[in-house]
Amino acid sequence: MSETTLLHQESSETTASVHYDLNGDVFEPPNYTMQQIRAAIPSHCFHPSTFRSLSYVVRDFALVSILVYIASTYIMLISDVKLRFAAWAAYTVCQGMVGTGIWILAHECGHGAFSKHKWLNNVMGLLMHSFLLVPFHSWRLSHAKHHKGTGNLQRDMVFIPRSRERWISQHKVHNPHGHGWHLVEETPVVTLGKLVFQQLFGFPLYLLINVAGQKYPGSWWVKRSHFYFGGGSYIFDRKDWGDILISDLGIATALATLWAGTKYFGAWNAFVFYIIPYLWVHHWIVALTYLQHTDPSLPHYENSAWTFSRGAAATIDRDFGFIGRHIFHRIIETHVLHHHVSTIPFYYAEEASEAIKKVMGVHYKSDTKTGFLVALWKVARSCRFVEESVKDSGVVFYRNFEGVGKVRPRRLSAKEL
Fold first, then answer.
1. Strands 299-301 and 395-399
2. For the chain, which terminus, N or C, has the lower number of CB atoms within 10 Å?
3. Which of 327, 309, 314 is nearest to 372 (CA)?
4. CB of 344 within 8 A of CB of 352?
5. 5 pLDDT band (50/70/90 cuts)?
């Protein structure tokens, strides 16, 4: 479809009978069944190998130890200040990537894809996530709800897009005299600032106060926290309090260990050896999650139009080369499969992904041409809010007021501005 036609459709797309994503491509909601998906996957893919999973844990912690040894032994021997700074920067980046791999192995535990033994999944997940200051069971419980409601505007748990109406309302707060704030918000420098904040602080704020999750107007922030195990939680059921308490104790133990290490080795060593790599882990986890669920081609659904298979297909695979496949355990390259069947271990995920593509057909989404970090920038610039492509269909797509993409949002009336 030409851009001229799409621009003409600006005022009529909400009454049309065809869905268009932001790229201008025609979209039809999936109609395949989960039974078809599961039947297409080779049976051995459903059975994790405890030994194989544990071997990756050993490998990743060995990499952590090797990096610490190299940094502590050799970096301080570099006399040139600039070269020493560059060496420390390289260490933190590499250690952050390895830490992200450990985070992903704990993620496998949370889905029961690490081992057929539930107790081992819980023990290993708790140890690995606590090492990274993540409350394992609290995250596991909310993440399970994310999988049960992926792409559902009312039920999903993370990176829920703003509606057009909410976007306008929020920007009237910034600029009560008109609609010009979006001209500021959508400048590259503002986008960059928001991305930096999102990448550094998005995940801890999500754990602490449920940032980027469902909105609970008037709620006390504590009851939106992943650390809260009392009554009236907006995220957890009362029966979950024991698991949440265990997670909190894991975090308390990790913090106490970090504090003791800081006292013994010094604040600077704690900062460069752990804190900065820890922030890199946050960056990668937020980037991965954001780009797996945000793209101009992806729909979201109102509850009335949502099904599990539609939500699972509202994800996208990307490519991060060697790092994605061997350090991040293929979580970027096989995420569509993961949302269809989350209990398949990552080392069978590529084989299972190829199998379900035959069932999904055109509904399988991937972008292996755009560089991962380039995609992060492009998505942040284009995916501002969502609105229906077909009126009252319950199917929404990303739009923006900046003119990025081939489909424009519908014209706003004077009352809406």
1. antiparallel
2. C
3. 327
4. yes
5. very low
